[in-house]
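Anyone have tokens for FAM3B protein? Sequence:
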Amino acid sequence: AVLRLFGFLLLSLAAWYLGSFAAHHVPQNAISTAALQEIGKKPVLRAPAPKRQKCDHWSPCPPGNFAYRILSGGGKQRKAKICFEDEQNAPGCMGRNVMCVPWVTSCAIDSTDHSGQMMDFIRKAPEGTLILMATYDDGSTRLKNNARKLVEELGSKEIKNIKFRSSWVFIAAKGFNLPDNIQKEKINHSDQTKNRYRGWPAEIQIEGCIPRNLI
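Reply: yep, here.
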């Protein structure tokens, strides 16, 4: 009984000493009620903000590749957008030839009769050139057959099928072959029961990566 009493007194003295020490040395605002409430809560994991990729790709192209993205127009107000290695280009070949880099050129086809200029655009592009093309507004009405044939010779399967206000995008290589696994062309025809805009179908796009060693 004496040992138990002695042990109880010793523990009480130790507890009093620790309490006094904490009261004198720990700042009053060191532990708040909010901090105590946070104890025991599960940590919240927050994903980092996604890094923007070239030409707004969801994932980056592998090392040694160029990134591209071709977006058709959507009616008169939404013009075509062509991007190569994050260089954004205004529609270009219809009298406003735009070169991204020496061996990449872009072209947008509208409703004006520029078939002759378009053919010059293609013919003057040197061997080893990437050609990126898209429509906006209407790219079919005044596009002459000889211009269509020249685009077809670049590998287009759909240029002959473009109808009134069709949306169309295309990537071609002059003087070399593109990889078989990339989408080279896409078309969307106007349909009054499905059109996104009044009289025009939705925009369409293709995007991908081109190995640098091909060019």
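The radius of gyration is 33 Å.
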